[in-house]
Amino acid sequence: MGSDLGQRTASAGRGSVDPAAAVPLLHGTRHWAQATAIKVTDISGGCGATYEIKIQSEEFKEKRIVQQHQMVNQVLKEKIKGMHRLWIFTSVPKY
User: Fold this and answer.
1) What's the topology of domain 8-91?
2) Where along the chain do its domains lie?
């Protein structure tokens, strides 16, 4: 995934740097404190119009995928207004 031209990736996980500081899309967002992994990839060729975001969090446990995606959209609603596309992938950590 990271070898494709035009892709920029930033990620953070438990024990790493603060996800909000590591990922410009999430800058200023403190909502994902329970996230064990966050990965954001700019797949727009560098213009910042299309992103893929992967979030792994206990907050998604026992929620349908649609509900998980609604949670992400609610948190990022102001930031996604100017985007062309946002691909969201959510999951619950497996221990």
Assistant:
1) GMP Synthetase; Chain A, domain 3 (3.30.300)
2) 8-91
